Amino acid sequence: MTTLNHCRKVWTNFLNAGGFDMQTLSGLKLVSASKGSISCELQVEKEHLNRLGGCHGGLLSTIVDVGGSLAIAAENMHATGVSTDLNISFVSGAKLGDKLLINSRCDKIGGSLAYTSVDIKVGDKVVALGRHTKFVRLAHQQNAQLKESSTSE
C-alpha cells in the first residue's frame, strides 16, 4: 500500500469515529504523502470563521493536531498516539473561500515521543506554523498487534 493510501485509511478511521475531527475537517483532502510527510488541502467554509470573518484559531490548531497525527501515520503507523504538547504561531489570516495548503512532517519518531511540524499557507502566504508532540509508546504496541493479527489471518 502506498504511503498516501495508508494515510487515507487512517484518516477515514478518524472520520468514522465521529466527533470533532469529522465535524470540523470533513472537507480535508489528502493530496500527497511520502515517508514521514503529508500534504493536505482544506477550503475555508463559513463554519471555519471567527466572529470577525477570519479563519478561526481553533480550526488552525485542530489542523496542527490532525496534521501532526497524519505525519506520524506517514511513518507507517496505524495508531498515532496522544498529544502531549501543541503550539502554534498565527502569522497571517485566511478568509472565506481560501484554500489552506497544509504540509506536515514527522521530524522524529522515537519509542516514546514523536515530534511533528505543520505549515499552513494560502498560496505562498504563511498563515500559521505549528509543532505537535505526541506520546507514541502505546501506539507502537497497538501497531505491532495490528501487524501480528493481519499476518495470522
Q: Which secondary structure elements does this structure contain, and how are they paired or packed?
A:
Blueprint: H1 3-16, H2 20-25, E1 29-34, E2 37-43, H3 57-73, E3 82-90, E4 99-109, E5 113-122, E6 125-135, H4 137-152
Antiparallel strand pairs: 1-2, 2-4, 3-6, 4-5, 5-6
Q: How would you describe this protein?
A:
The protein is an alpha+beta fold. It has a single domain (3-152), classed as Hotdog Thioesterase (Thiol Ester Dehydrase, Chain A, Roll), CATH 3.10.129.10. 35% of the residues lie in helices and 35% in strands. It contains four helices and six strands; from the N terminus they run ααββαββββα. The protein has helices at residues 3-16, 20-25, 57-73, 137-152; strands at 29-34, 37-43, 82-90, 99-109, 113-122, 125-135. A six-stranded antiparallel sheet has the order 1-2-4-5-6-3. β4 (99-109) and β5 form a beta hairpin. The longest helix is centred in the middle third of the chain and has 17 residues, at 57-73. The model has no long low-confidence stretch (mean pLDDT 93). Residues 53-126 form the Thioesterase domain. One of its GO terms (molecular function) is fatty acyl-CoA hydrolase activity. Belongs to the thioesterase PaaI family. It comes from Lobosporangium transversale. Pfam families: 4HBT.
